[in-house]
Structures are given as structure tokens and as C-alpha cells.
Design a protein that fits this description.
alpha+beta; 4 domains; 30 strands
């Protein structure tokens, strides 16, 4: 829905311990084989399978191989090496017999099963082969990704510069959290949401504060934001009321690509450019603002940051209670998620789900049930799509 955002191309080289959540600017190619040589996948005895014509057979135990401490000599005829998981196979060995199928007596071991070549052996490069592309450019790095890079001795990675997002809220009714509310005032929660949501996306969040409901103040804030950020996000003043100036101010110094979207809540979402900088106008209502951000803006920011990792935000859940909607527009219902009988249940917040373990009302928001515009009524027990937050 949001088009016209440039994709981040600037890159920087960052130490591995600092790249969590960053987006790769270049593919990561393995410089090593893992394992680097054939190794044992079990505790047991390494031997040459051709030595065992039948069982039981008794072999001499020539020594021991441990992870990090290889048996340093070639394997002799009718001999074996006591070997631990992860230890390199000695030269001449091609299989490992599990210790459960071997009876040790001093310096000999008797086998009760006939081994097959390569049994319980991890071959060279079985996990990761030298030259293999471990991760493609555009991948957002997870903890497990970082662990795999560390396994290969990679100490630094080329990642994209983090997207800078400047944001501010508008409204004469907004109050600081540290102040007592006056009649008609509400606390400015939207900026706290945006900072947290942007940082979860690994953006650089540039908080430009609260702005009064007048065109000059809004224009000044947008001018400041364009110098500080790659993308601008505002909340409030994006609808068609007497004090809603965002679209008109935006139009004087740029373009309005679209205004208002067929969704509930979140209809007053608009997008354009201020002096060439992509600018998102979000509704001032906290719920509508969050819906618009998660449904439309989040994916646009992820793409602008160069992230090609498939999203993992959709959840299928069993509906608790009945929902009705208006045909022709997407609707999003705040919901709590919980586990029941091995499946995920979505309980709309308006139904005052009770936390029986703590005997209190639950009001936490875990996501939004998405009704696609063709559904006017959904019965309790139906499977629904939930946009997780």
C-alpha cells in the first residue's frame, strides 16, 4: 500500500556481538567445512569396517580420541580407538560402533553387531561446506544466525545502516506523563509506542516531541524531521476535522500519495512526501494508530530497511465469542491470546476475558483479529487470522 520509500543501500562493518537484529548487506559465505574432518557422532569405538567379517569379533583398543584431542596415529589392523562424540576419526577408520554394542575388557573390545561403513560418522562439511552461502543479503540476523557465523570464526559482518525514523505527535490535548491531567487532556502515549515499535524493528528512533495544533508549528517540526530522518511518522491531525492540518501542510511542501484507507480502526492513515522525505500520517487515536502501524506501516519500514526476511506475524487462533463486522472494509479487533487444550485461543478484549489463575480481568493486547471485508459474522469456535504485535 505504501510505495515510494527508498530501500536502504548504505552499509557498515560491525563486530559480530553487535549485529543482532541488523540486516545483512552482503551474503555470508562459509570459509570452512563443518566438521573440518570426519568426526564421531556417538560415544563408542572407531574402526575399519572391513576388519569385521562376522560377529562377535574382538579388537585391540589402541588408544582414545576426544573432542579436541585426536588420536594421532593411523589405525592398525584388527584394532580400534575409544572415541567420544565430536572427536576426529583416526586415519584408517571409517565407522563408529556405539558403546552399547561393545563389551570392553582391559585393552580389547568385543563387538556384538556388524558395523556398516560410515555409521555414526559426520563427514567433512556435512553441516556447512566451504563456499556455501550461509545467509543471503537482506536477511535480518537472529541469535541462531550469529551463533552459526561464530562457528565459522567470522568476527565482523557487513550490515545495512539502520533506517532513521523521525516521529512526533500533534494535538493541543496531549500532556506529558509527568504532569497532572487538566480537563480534556490525555497523556501522549503514541510517542512511547512508536519509539518501542521502531526500536523492535532495529530502526534509529528520533523522537521530535509533541507539536501544537497549528500549521506553522507542524511545518517547523516537519522541516526538522526531514534533516534528521530517512522517514517521518506523525500521529494526530490526519483526518478532516477543523484542527486537522497535517495533510494541508504536507501538500504545501510535497505530495499526498493517498489519504484514508478502507479499514477500521485506522481509516485516517495518509502517506506522502515532505521535501522528498517519505512521510506517514497516522491517526491520533492510540488504537487506530497501532492498527495502522502494524497493518500497513511496519512492513513498509521493514522493506525500506532492506530486510527480505519473511514476516512471522500471522497466527491462526480459535475465536472465543462471536464477532460481527461491516462488509466492504477490513476490520481489526483487539484480542488477547492464550493456550487452551493445545491450541491458541483469541479472546477479543471487549469480552473481558478472565485470568482464572490470578482471578483478575485481562486487558493485555497480543494482536488484532483480521476480518477481511467479506465476513459479516464469525461464530465462536471458528479459526481466525490474528496479526500478532
Amino acid at each position: 500500500m505504501i510505495t515510494g520509500m527508498p530501500v536502504m543501500r548504505e552499509r557498515e562493518r560491525v563486530e559480530l556481538s553487535l549485529v543482532a537484529g541488523r540486516v545483512l548487506a552482503a551474503p555470508v559465505v562459509s570459509p570452512l567445512d563443518i566438521p573440518a574432518c570426519p568426526t564421531s557422532a556417538m560415544d563408542g569405538y572407531a574402526l575399519y569396517s572391513g576388519d569385521i567379517a562376522s560377529v562377535p569379533t574382538t579388537l585391540n583398543v589402541a588408544g582414545t580420541a576426544l573432542a579436541g584431542h585426536a588420536y594421532g596415529a593411523p589405525l592398525g589392523p584388527l584394532s580400534c580407538v575409544r572415541i567420544m562424540t565430536g572427536a576426529p576419526l583416526p586415519a584408517g577408520a571409517d565407522t563408529v560402533v556405539m558403546q552399547e554394542y561393545a563389551v570392553r575388557s582391559d585393552d580389547t573390545v568385543t563387538l556384538s553387531v556388524k558395523p556398516h561403513r560410515d555409521s555414526h560418522v559426520r563427514s567433512t562439511g556435512e553441516d556447512i561446506a566451504v563456499g556455501e552461502v550461509l545467509f543471503a543479503a537482506g536477511r535480518r540476523l537472529s541469535a541462531s544466525d550469529i551463533a552459526r557465523a561464530a562457528m565459522l570464526g567470522i568476527s565482523h559482518l557487513d550490515v545495512l545502516r539502520r533506517l532513521r525514523v523521525g516521529f512526533f505527535s500533534t494535538g493541543d490535548e496531549l500532556a506529558a506523563l509527568s504532569s497532572a491531567l487538566k480537563p480534556g487532556e490525555v497523556y501522549d502515549s503514541n510517542r512511547y509506542f512508536l519509539r518501542a515499535a521502531l526500536e523492535q524493528l532495529n530502526c534509529v528512533a528520533v523522537d521530535l516531541g509533541r507539536v501544537a495544533d497549528d500549521p506553522a508549528s507542524i511545518a517547523s517540526a516537519l522541516r526538522e524531521a526531514r534533516h534528521a530522518a530517512d522517514v517521518i511518522i506523525t500521529t494526530g491531525g490526519s483526518s478532516v476535522g477543523d484542527k486537522d492540518y497535517m495533510q494541508s501542510v504536507l501538500a504545501t511542501r510535497g505530495t499526498v500519495g493517498f489519504s484514508q484507507v478502507a479499514m477500521k480502526p485506522g481509516k485516517p492513515l495518509s502517506f506522502g512526501h515532505f521535501d522528498g522525505v517519505p512521510t506517514v500520517l497516522l491517526p491520533g487515536s492510540p488504537t487506530a494508530m497501532m492498527v495502522a502501524f502494524y497493518v500497513v506501516v511496519r512492513d513498509a519500514l521493514v522493506a525500506a530497511g532492506g530486510d527480505n526476511t519473511p514476516p512471522k506475524n500471522a497466527i491462526r487462533a480459535r475465536l472465543e465469542g462471536t464477532l460481527s463486522a461491516t462488509a466492504g472494509r477490513n476490520e481489526y479487533v483487539q484480542t488477547t491470546l492464550y493456550r487452551r487444550g493445545g491450541e491458541t485461543v483469541a479472546a477479543p478484549l471487549g469480552r473481558r476475558l478472565r485470568d482464572r489463575a490470578n482471578d483478575r480481568q485481562v486487558a493485555h493486547l497480543d494482536g488484532f483479529i483480521e476480518l477481511d471485508g467479506s465476513q459479516t459474522r464469525i461464530e465462536s469456535g471458528a479459526l481466525v487470522d490474528v496479526l500478532a504485535v
